[in-house]
Amino acid sequence: MAVYRVTSPDGQRYKVNGPEGANQAEIIAVVQREIAREANKPETDFLDQLEELAKGIPAGIIGLGELGALGAAALLDEEAELKVRSSIKSAADTLRSPFTADVGSEELVGRKFGEALGSFAGLGLASLIPVWGCLPL
Prior knowledge:
It is elongated, with a radius of gyration of 22 Å. The chain is mostly helical. It has a two-stranded antiparallel ribbon. Helix content is 65%, strand content 9%. The chain folds into 2 domains: 2-40, no CATH class; 46-134, no CATH class.
């Protein structure tokens, strides 16, 4: 892939990734697809960011749990591991489904921050396991 710098007739500048040795018509087609994609992108506001933040936190926790379970499954023999991995992925997908990002909101800062916060919260909760064993019942 090569990077081309293009200036449109209205003065907008674009950086475009395209095939090596692309001709002018191919580069223009890539720019037009980018413009169309941007035009069809849904508008997001502060409430959308908050919504994705709130949905990203549990999705991050579930993702961390999935990774931990997949790592633990690696201790099994290969045939059993494949079955367990399939079950883990299916369960994680089911748990994560209510928290999926809205179309076009997958890359919002709120979403990414929520997922990171959820992963960190999951690690924080796991760090409390030794403390729970010391508590009187």
